[in-house]
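Deliverable D5.2: sample structural annotation.
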Amino acid sequence: GGKASIISEDFSVVGEKELIVPSLKFNEKAMLKWQLIPQKSGNIPIKISIDERLNLSASIRVEPAIQITKADYVPEPKPVDISPYEIGVYYFPGWSPDQWDRWQKQKGFPERDPVLGFYREGDPEVADWHIKWAVENGITFFMYDWYWRNGEIALEKGLEDGYLRAKYRDYMKFCVMWANHAPFADHTLEQLLTVTDYWIEKYFHLDCYYKIDGKPVVSFFAPDNLTHDLKGSDNVKKAFDKMRKRVKSSGFSGIYFIACGDNSPNSQERFKREGYDAISAYNYPSAGAKSSLWASYKTLMQAHVDIWNNSLRANTLTYIPILTVGWDSRPWHGNNALVRFGRSTGHFKGGLIYLKDWMDKNNRHIALLEAWNEWGEGSYIEPNSEFGFGDLEAIRDVFGKTKDKPQNVAPSDIGLDNYSIDKIDHKLLD
């Protein structure tokens, strides 16, 4: 226990400056709340001192005050031009009301609260905010984590009830990454063909479906699982040939398959034999961690470059670089979590600069980020309490072509409430 005080020249404190810290046992948490009035906008450093023995440092991002006309719906997006680059972001569709337990696990991590609140993911209005924020900050497409289990689609609300019904869906592209991991694995040739028919009917014909060389893009989370399920690389090749044949018979030039996997020369050669067009990954959370559960975020950004360069040893398949935007999976994995500490918008922007430089040097124009909203794993760039719009604005700062960029706005800026399906009160989530 003890007394905690907050120190900052750029904030004035309303009410008590010193708060009592209760005695805590191992792994217990306490929440202290100060009401602060900022004197300026930007990333503002603060210090918290406990009995002048323990000093903690952090920064708070304060968005500038804006004047905007009130509205009764999401304002129309004003996309930022980042051509010739195309930046995609993985989207985790796990935040619908029937999956409230995922939001519950965010208790104790109020810095991650989305600007939209604990939202109803299948709401088209929520999707319109996501689309607006994405295209106004340099994002070209969402790559939705996509699930198929026991002959039926799963976790589909974010895409099918949200994005596909959104007013502004045609402002950006989308594609799917088949998350064929447990418990969504064990797929057969018949299931692959059934899914192909589903994609053709529901997605591929849409102008907003993301295509490369005229081919609808589909990624596989676990290509090794697919090889196992189909009992060998030759059978994967045969399955892909049949899937492509069905797509071509519907008027497309094929499917552009991406393998999320190891980018070593041997793996690239195998993936090429199986019929993949490119190789990438879902994330690299342990990059530079050296087997430690706690490792710096700055090192995470730097270590991606070695992974990207490793792909060039063979260059058998096109490698699409990916940058992991962060990692701290304590809400889902507790004390066994991997934590990349010291995350900041400045370090993230540094990672984006590494990414752009690598793309320019190696003649690439497509890249991926992971993720938009993996809140439970600590990998997110969707506007939130800690970083505000900072991480999104870093993307357009690095890849954007003009300095004239639209003002980012939140629902509260135009007189709208947030979109929580339950009041954000972390004490009530126990």
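Annotation notes: The CA atoms of residues 13 and 34 lie 7 Å apart. Confidence is low (pLDDT under 50) at residues 426-430.
The annotation will be released with the project's public dataset once the embargo ends.
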